[in-house]
Amino acid sequence: MDRPTNQLLLAAYDISGIQEYIFASNRLKENIGGSYIVGTMMRTHLPKVLKQLSFRNEGKVITNWEEAPFRLLDDSIILAEIIYIGGGNALVMYRDWGLYHQVNKQFSLELIKESFTLTLATEAIAFSPSDGTSYSKLVKELMNKLDTTKSELIRSKPLGALPISSQERFGGWPVTTIDEHANHEEISTVQALKRKAATEKPLQELFPLDNQSFSWAKEMEAMKRKKGEDSYVAVVHIDGNGMGQLLRQKLYSLEKESLTKQISEHRELSKQITSRYLNYFQNMIADLEIADLEIVDLTISQGGVLPIRPLIMDGDDITFICRADWGIPLAMEFLRRLEMDTEQPLPLSACAGVALVHSHFPFQIAYEIAEECCKNAKKKYYQEMQGSFLDFHLVRGSYVLSRKEQLELGLKNKQQRPFRVNGTGDLNAPHSIDLLAEVIQKMKLDPEEAPGAWPRSWLVRLYQAYLQHGKNDKAVTSVIEEAVSRGYDRSYFFSETETIDDSVLFDALEVLDSYEHTLFQVKEGKQ
């Protein structure tokens, strides 16, 4: 359909099924490859398609949106311009319906070619710059239209395995190729694309490390505290608080400005959020105190492999896998840095969910648990409309139940979480994660060196009593009374607050072996 000559087009793109695609298997190489494919579809392939088609249409497009000023309204030769890319989404302005449809067709083919199973959703609305409609209203209308399309979208998948064809072992896709670098393993097209991306593209290219002597983990072995051990890992999901509302408020405040000014401010806000989240993460990694920790394949003097693997780092959305006892401290430190940065004109906060799972546990379910924990933390945020919160969940063994199902077994009334992370480290603040960290640190002390510290055997007895009977049960009371008779009192753990909280004790006992409390301790003499 042709448009009137005075009309423009505002189009939105969204790639669906990102998390499912990345976490579709427990092969780290495939997770990394899936992460790279997802990360480059919008940032690399959409601009490439726009440039190719603009050349055919004897015009030009603006794709370097992070650097160039918005120019489409002032230059008639520009056929399209990317407004911003982030969070698996893109916003593009077109002059022509025809070019929009051409891009959709070509970009969809690129998506299939590069990923095989990811799905593209797109919508567009026509408008005239002279009709006075504000940019904020256009964006709101467009996103509502896109949300409707996504809710009605049937995600088609390629043809699955037939009864006469071989299937790859994990996802059940038909075998289409042989991986000669993995003992001639029979794999599917999806696996082949992910492994190729992981092999050809360095992870540092997508998630740069300031210290070039280190590298991100590429094998599960690098996530372990000791070589050969049967270990746990942490899946961490962090999501910004109120980003949609922040954007709407910013755009609404600019309604009386020119369209060019509104779009420029939208770009600047998107760049600022992305830059700050990336900087917080990079600075956090640079400040790790790892010299005294036993880490596989890591020698501080020579560099090595960090037991962390970022998988999603897009705007205010961060997901990574790491060594189990690094998960909560890393998430806690990242949120704390957001809270401490009070000098910025744009205050940011976020919530985090941490799933502690066996290394052989299905990663797709592990991510869903981490995401559910993050959503639970956000419920606390929306109750108070301020602050950053963190929730975590420990999956025991290979017991494949959802977080909700496990909580219904009786764990919910024993927990304090979600915890609040603030920049002051106030142990007496409601739901303070610093109190949890303090209790864990005291649990790790040697009774022979710290008066009042509990032996490990008594901590195990107390945890088992909490786990099996609940914090108000007679069995728990019996263990506590017997411990007191031996000189071990719960008040030892709460000497700074003078209030005993059994829920915090239970949470601390649950993650006692999954929390490295020295990860960000400042060394003596170090600023």
Automatic annotation (TrEMBL):
<dbReference type="Pfam" id="PF22335">
    <property type="entry name" value="Cas10-Cmr2_palm2"/>
</dbReference>
<dbReference type="GO" id="GO:0051607">
    <property type="term" value="P:defense response to virus"/>
</dbReference>
<feature type="domain" description="Cas10/Cmr2 second palm">
    <location>
        <begin position="232"/>
        <end position="380"/>
    </location>
</feature>
<dbReference type="InterPro" id="IPR052117">
    <property type="entry name" value="Cas10/Csm1_subtype-III-A"/>
</dbReference>
<dbReference type="GO" id="GO:0000166">
    <property type="term" value="F:nucleotide binding"/>
</dbReference>
<dbReference type="InterPro" id="IPR054767">
    <property type="entry name" value="Cas10-Cmr2_palm2"/>
</dbReference>
<keyword id="KW-0547">Nucleotide-binding</keyword>
<dbReference type="InterPro" id="IPR043128">
    <property type="entry name" value="Rev_trsase/Diguanyl_cyclase"/>
</dbReference>
<keyword id="KW-0051">Antiviral defense</keyword>
<protein>
    <recommendedName>
        <fullName>Cas10/Cmr2 second palm domain-containing protein</fullName>
    </recommendedName>
</protein>
